[in-house]
Specification:
two-stranded parallel sheet, 7-stranded parallel beta sheet, 9 helices, UDP-galactose 4-epimerase, domain 1, globular, single chain, 18% strand, 2 domains, 13 strands
Length: 323
């Protein structure tokens, strides 16, 4: 897309969203952000608040009046839909949260696009969790999408709605199934948990599960590059892309990286044993690795492997603590 195009970003003050906003603004886009700040933070986009090409609206797709969403969408040629509840574990105890904040919020956005007879491009950040316990590395064409968490199910429901609306109402849709995205500004996930626990007790670290869970981790900078490249180069009415690093790292190794970067020695790593065969929690996929050859075919390649992305993130988060 050319410079000065207008883009609407839901969840744009959140972790991935704010990094995407930085990239869009740096490349000359006009950006409108809608965020309820439940998991996002205004500080993440503070440097753009006085920029005439940027507009921030505190609002919620579940509560904002339809006519107000229509106004925000006016003139936007692309929508990046990142607004969602990002905490996978909450679905095991409060599944209604993911229905409301993921599925219903997405439906409300799609209805706004339908009412406007909008014909731009909607980019949606889905998740590797839609595959469930699939064979690895998992391609986009994997035949059985069987999520084992409510979070994964909610993302798959969003995908289905988006595909149907794009086909029925004439806009283009890009669906990105993301591996575990890490980096500064993140507020949840294993790295944040480990740093917080080690601050509380530098001698012992509790590791949920049996420690052997192996997954792909991608740095947020690599993730944003993929989101933007797809916008530029994908040409189908509905396209699905896996986005992740091309290797894995296990949870116990992440724990050791966190301790090492924090300058801690002789830490006792205490694995809990977990649930259901060593998982960290109900719905935790024990092994995940995505086949990313499709988006690589557009010219994208992750700069960081999983362990490197984790290490870089720990360094970034520790630096962030100092400011």
């Amino acid at each position: 897309m050319c410079a000065r195009k207008k883009v609407f970003v839901t969840g744009g003050a959140g972790f991935i969203g704010s990094h995407l906003v930085d990239a869009l603004m740096s490349r000359g886009f006009k950006v409108v952000v809608l965020d309820n700040l439940s998991s996002g933070c205004l500080k993440n986009v503070a440097k753009w608040l006085n920029n005439s090409s940027f507009k921030f609206v505190k609002g919620d797709l579940l509560k904002t009046k339809p006519k107000d969403i229509d106004v925000l969408l006016s003139g936007c040629e692309a929508v990046f839909h990142l607004a969602a509840n990002p905490e996978v574990r909450v679905g095991s105890v409060r599944p209604s949260v993911h229905f409301r904040e993921n599925v219903l919020a997405t439906f409300n956005l799609l209805e706004a696009l339908r009412r406007k007879d909008w014909n731009g491009t909607l980019a949606f950040t889905s998740s590797s969790t839609v595959y469930g316990e699939a064979e690895t590395p998992t391609p986009e064409s994997y035949p059985l999408l069987k999520p084992i968490s409510v979070y994964g199910a909610s993302k798959l429901a969003c995908e289905a709605l988006i595909m149907a609306y794009a086909s029925s109402y004439g806009f283009r849709a890009l669906i990105y199934r993301l591996a575990n995205v890490v980096g500064n500004r993140g507020k949840h996930g294993v790295i944040v948990d480990f740093i917080r626990k080690l601050r509380g007790n530098p001698n012992e670290l509790e590791v949920l599960g049996d420690g052997t869970q192996r997954k792909s981790y991608i740095h947020v900078a690599d993730c944003v590059e993929a989101l933007l490249l797809g916008l530029d180069k994908a040409d189908g009415r509905v396209e699905v892309f896996n986005v992740g690093s091309e290797d894995q790292v296990d949870v116990l190794t992440i724990a050791k990286i966190a301790a090492e970067e924090m300058g801690l020695e002789n830490v006792n790593f205490r694995v809990t044993g977990g649930v259901d065969g060593g998982r960290g929690w109900i719905g935790d996929v024990k092994e995940m690795l995505l086949n990313v050859s499709k988006i690589r075919g557009l010219g994208w390649k992750p700069k960081h492997g999983s362990a490197e992305a984790v290490q870089l993130t720990v360094k970034e988060m520790l630096r962030e603590e100092l400011h």
